[in-house]
Amino acid sequence: KSPARRLFHPAMANPPAYAPVGGNTWMSGLFDFGNLLDCIISACFGPCVLANARENFDGSSWCFNCMCGGMPGVRQAVRHGYNIQNPSSDECLALFCVPCSIAQVKKEVEARGRLPRTLGAHQQWLTSLFGDMFLDFGVFMYGWFCPHCAMSQALHEYDGTDCCYAFCCISPVFARSVIRHGHNIEGDCCGDICAVACCGSCAACQALNEV
User: Is 195 in contact with 187 (CB distance < 8 Å)?
Assistant: First the structure.
């Protein structure tokens, strides 16, 4: 990684700290059935509820979140964005009751509101998708031979998401979207999808070089 290139990227630091409105824990329990209607809606229209929650959380595309987000990815993005400290065992437990988890995420975003954006103008990726693949040969080898592992590692370095959890539960295209959106990098969901679909290894190398 070239330190000189990083000087031109003021958003390189870790995601900005969020001053928690409701502390560092979930404001509602995973099995909090106080609002039965929320659970029913989450069970019947899960992807739509998640997409709406993340759109309200950070302004990302509703359609992208509905198609590519998934409960584990959106839940992790919301949890890390609000700086919620939760044991990995509890996050694994959330996988066994998806409607409960979706309802919890929905209520959390409704209670805390949109994540404040502290970054300035949109930035560029530190490295291009194709032209700078060999900037770091170790990153290139890692991304080329195991792109999914590399993208999971990039997400881990970005916000601390457990690598195994990211590998098993979060799609590479969603991980790229989280990193791009968190660093305020130019682009959109279509670009994320195309980058991963056309050359997943290139996208993984780019994400690793970014973080």
Answer: no
Q: Which residue has the tokens 């994540």?
A: 115
Which residues, in sequence order, are CB contacts of 180 under 8 Å at separation 6+?
187, 192
Q: What angle (nearest 5°) sits at the alpha carbon of residue 33, between those of residues 29 and 34?
A: 95
Tell me how far apart the alpha carbons of residues 11 and 124 are, in angstroms, rounded to a whole number: 10
Enter the tokens of residue 107: 């209520």
Is there a contact between 181 and 173 (Cβ–Cβ < 8 Å)? no
| 202 C-beta neighbours (distance < 10 Å), count | 22
* Claim: this prediction has a pTM higher than 0.90: no
What are the tens digits of pLDDT across the range 42-60? Answer: 888 989 999 999 999 988 8
Predicted confidence (pLDDT) per residue in 88-106, tens digit: 667 777 788 888 888 889 9
CA separation, residue 190 to residues 58, 67, 68, 105, 173 (Å): 17, 12, 11, 25, 10
Per DSSP, the residues of 48-97 read HHHHHHHHHHH---HHHIIIIIHHHHHHHHHHHHTT----HHHHHHHTT-
Task: Tell me if residue 11 falls in helix, strand or coil.
Answer: coil
